[in-house]
Specification:
four-stranded mixed beta sheet; alpha/beta; ten-stranded mixed beta sheet; UDP-N-acetylmuramoyl-L-alanine:D-glutamate ligase; 383 residues
């Protein structure tokens, strides 16, 4: 089956009217679900001199074996982690008309104030499984360097989840759930067990197959060995038999996963090849939908075929950290609204495109306004 490729925004004109009507329609129910399972404190530091990575690298090399000191500006700490950012974005897309339970590494023995402030008003319930991980983000004019202390990630386990949430509360949440969002497998060594056990528990509770949307994003998994990737792939079949599954990759991650099956796609970024790569991954992975999203579009492959949709590319993003999580939240929100594959990735593109321009997560109304400006050729780099 040949993929459907939308090369630009004018080609999407027949799709946009239906998309806007669907996302602006009254929500038939108040959706409820679970998100997890990481949690990071992100410390942002701006290097002032030298300001660029290109200049900093040679200076650092020249200082090896001695010492060096550079002026920098501390920009502050923010809540982070794929799961917390995803949960906050999903709440905002629905303008608060959604019940999100977040389970993750938010502090021990108490949930840290930074997470309480960020998520307390955007979630139905917060559960912490252990200490938050730490990231120091060195920001330059031409990129950023993320220094991750992930020692706390090992504390995120199924046993801790049962201990801190409790079986009765977990079962009540699963019975009510219409979605599960499980992200950042790459940094959580025990995430696969949690993903499998949640799906299995749905079946044990008598929740009908395919009633729950299960969104999975591996996040950066380059450090996970092949045996771990193969273990995860083996878990996806049983999860898919119970749930309606979406597996999402950015382009780099998709290239890396394709290599597991012998696919050679590294460095190929054109729309037709991204669509081909997406279909290739779905042919080898037991999930209902595979999504691949470079920074200028997204492709989705399912039993209905493969589609590629362009995105509102932003050459000068106000913020980039969290763009992928907003993309995923947009996809989940669109799937809950019953949109097709084209609508799902279009929503993801609009959500991320709005976020990188404004620094805040889009609502459905914001998505519609972005599409209007994009169609009219008036979409600015800042919103």
């Amino acid at each position: 089956m040949n993929p459907i490729l939308y090369p630009d925004i004018p080609s999407l004109a027949p799709v946009i009217a239906g998309f806007k009507a669907r996302v602006s329609a009254p929500v038939p129910e108040r959706f409820s679900g679970l998100c997890g399972f990481d949690g990071f404190i992100d410390t942002f530091v701006r290097l002032q001199s030298p300001p660029s990575m290109a200049e900093f690298g040679p200076k650092l090399t020249a200082a090896a074996g001695v010492a060096a000191s550079y002026p920098a500006r501390h920009l502050g700490d923010k809540f982070g982690g794929n799961g917390p950012l995803f949960a906050a974005a999903l709440h905002d897309i629905y303008a608060g008309n959604i019940d999100v339970t977040y389970i993750g590494a938010l502090g021990h023995p108490e949930i840290l104030p930074i997470f309480q402030a960020a998520l307390g008003g955007k979630t139905k319930r917060l559960y912490s499984l252990g200490r938050a991980a730490q990231t120091t983000c060195l920001e330059f004019t031409d990129g950023k360097v993320m220094l991750n202390d992930m020692s706390a990630c090992a504390e995120v386990t199924w046993d801790r989840l049962l201990e801190h949430v409790g079986s009765p509360a977990l079962d009540d949440a699963l019975r009510a759930a219409r979605f599960i969002s499980a992200v950042n497998w790459g940094k959580l060594p025990q995430a696969g067990v949690i993903w499998s056990n949640l799906a299995a528990r749905l079946g044990q509770l008598g929740v009908p197959a395919k009633q729950v949307l299960y969104f999975m994003d591996l996040a950066e998994f380059e450090t996970r060995p092949l045996v771990d990737r193969e273990d995860l792939l083996g878990r996806l079949g049983p999860i898919t038999r119970q749930c309606e599954t979406i597996l999402s990759f950015n382009l780099k991650e998709a290239w890396q996963m394709a290599e597991v099956f012998g696919g050679a796609y590294q460095g190929r970024k054109d729309a037709a090849t991204v669509a081909e790569l997406t279909a290739y991954l779905r042919a080898h992975i037991a999930v209902d939908r595979v999504i691949v999203h470079p920074n200028n579009g997204a492709a989705c492959s399912s039993a209905q075929g493969t589609v590629y949709v362009p995105g509102p590319y932003c050459a000068d993003p106000l913020i980039s950290t969290g763009a992928g999580d907003n993309f995923g939240a947009g996809c989940v929100a669109a799937a809950l609204q019953g949109l097709d594959d084209t609508g799902i990735v279009l929503a993801g593109n609009c959500a991320s495109g709005h976020f990188v321009r404004s620094g805040r997560s889009a609502t459905f109304a914001d998505m519609g306004q972005l599409l209007e400006a994009w169609s009219a050729g008036t979409l600015a780099e800042r919103l």
